[in-house]
Structure formats: C-alpha cells, structure tokens
Amino acid sequence: xxxxxxxxxxxxxxxxxAAAWTVMTARLLRSVIGxxxxxxxxxxxxxxxxxxxxxVFELSVCAGLISAIFISCISLTQRLTDEQAAEKQKExxxxxxxxxxxxxxxxxxxxQLPITLDFHLPAAPTETDVRNIIWNLRHLDxxxxxxxxxxxxxxxxxxxKD
Amino acid sequence: MTEMxxxxxxxxxxxxxxxxxGFYCLIVTYNLVRALIGxxxxxxxxxxxxxxxxxxxxxxxxxxxxxxTLIIIEVxxxxxxxxxxxxxYKNIKSIDGRLLRNIxx
Lengths: 162, 105
Prior knowledge:
The complex is a heterodimer of chains A (162) and B (105). Chain A is mostly helical. Helices cover 78% and strands 0% of the residues of chain A. Chain A contains 7 helices and no strands. Chain A has helices spanning 3-24, 28-48, 52-76, 82-96, 98-112, 130-137, 139-159. Chain A is flat. Chain B is an all-alpha fold.
C-alpha cells in the first residue's frame, strides 16, 4: 500500500466524517462550518484527481460564498434559547442515531462487493485545456450558466422587492 | 496507472456514502436550512462522481467544465432557496417545514 493510497483513504474517511458531523450537529452555525470543512476536504481530493480549476471553484464558491449565504440566513433568523437547544439536541439524537450505523454498514457492504474493475479506457483525451473546452467546445453551457445566474438574481430581487 | 482502479473504487464508495448522508438529512429533518445543507452534500457527492469519471477516462478538462457548471447551478439554487426560507420565516416566524403543511392556494 503506497503513501498515495493511504492519503486517499484518510481524505475519503475525513470527508464522510465531516459530512456526517455537518448533518448531525445540533446548532445550525456548526453545521455550516462543517459544510465548509467538507468543501475544503473535497477541494483537496479534487486537486489530487488532477482537477485544479474545478477545485479552486469549489473552494471559493462552496466553502466561501455558500457559507456566507447560510451564515447571513442564520443571522437573520431567531436564535434558539438554551432550553429549546437542549430539547432539539435530544430530538436530533433520536432522529440521527441511525445515520452512523447506516454509513458504516453501507461502507463495509460496498467494500465487500465482488465487483471486478475492468478498465478498458476509452479513446485518448481529445482536448486537455479547460479554457478551450469552456469557451469553444461547450459555449452553450456558458449561455445556460448566464441565464441561470440572471434567473437567480431576478428571483432573489423578486423575493425581497417590498 | 496501477493505482487508478483503487482510487476509483475508494472514491466511489466515499461519494456513495455522501449521497446516503445527504438523502438521510433530507428525509429526516424538518428544518428548512438543514434541508438545504443536505442538498449541498448531495451536490458535493455528484461533483465528486463527475471529477472521478474525468480522472478515470483521462478527460479531466471536460469533467472540470461540467463540475464548474454544476457549482454555478448549485450556488444559484441555494441563493434562491435561502431567499424563500427567509420569506417563510418572515411570514410564520419559524423555519420548521411542518408548519407549512396547511398552506392553501
């Protein structure tokens, strides 16, 4: 087992643990911090899988912008009192105790699956430059992204127009 | 090159576990913000699957283009959904989804 595989296993396990903590923790703010940590670990994995540009997007947008959106949303809502938080914590335990069990069982079951990985890779990569793919080969995607961004912006304006 | 099947196998399992976590969160929770967090975890799983497919087939550039598109869609969906959650909070002073069951019209 090489150092690369050990590092990949550590990153994978940390990613799942961070996601599980994000879902299970009681306070929403901690949950958002957990989501940002999940994004950072995913960024490292993406760097290791030879996708640096998408990794930078993931880091800046998902770990940065989306966390800021969630934190501003939480700050605009009312904070729970300590009694309510304690009650919620009990409720959360009854709801979420099954998740770690399911994750461990699913992980073991998937690891034991008798699947043979027969890699006959397809033809050699035709284009290796991301910029060329985005601007020349898949420029319709760009139009779609611009339309979605505008739709989102108008949607937010329409929601808060009063 | 010999590590490639192991990398694929490992991160496929990780992405599947992320998918399970996100779905579990969406099914169990009634808090609207936490439901959005579950949705985020689901999209992270899909991003990982896309990047993994690009890594395995050697088409990382195409996979990155698709992942960037997915990230942009994700941000817009979250921004609009958070706006809707805030509007709900303004009206019913709660972000509990159970209180929305009697909405009419």
